[in-house]
Amino acid sequence: MKLHIIQAVTQAFHDQVLSLLATVKQMDSALQRRAIKPRSALGGDTASSLSDSEKIALQLKLDVERYGMEITQLGIDCTKASSYEKLLQEVQNIDVNK
Question: Which of 31, 47, 53, 73 is the most buried (most CB within 10 A)?
Fold first, then answer.
């Protein structure tokens, strides 16, 4: 029963991640069309050199990893939740420069 619930919640999480990534891609395209340079292209120190898209991608990765820890704390092996594996793979393969 727990695994079934985790699968459903994780699928919804996956759908939200895909939606957010599509929105970020659209935002980047709009900024490029308007020839607006991201803040990271304007200079600054290396700690703040991540673009907004890169920051979003990094946060998604951190969120999914934490979600996996929460699943494990519920006593469920993440490797048995195929939807979690799919979600994890999705965020690990994020390329904000596509």
Answer: 53
Contact 67, 42 (CB under 8 A): no
Residues 6+ apart with CB under 8 A from 25: 98
Domain residue limits, the chain: 2-92
pLDDT in tens, 28-61: 888 888 876 655 555 555 456 888 888 999 999 9
- What is this structure's pTM? 0.78
Q: Are 61 and 94 in contact (CB under 8 A)?
A: yes
Half-sphere exposure of 55 (CA within 13 A, CB side): 10
CA dist 69 and 65 (Å) reads 7
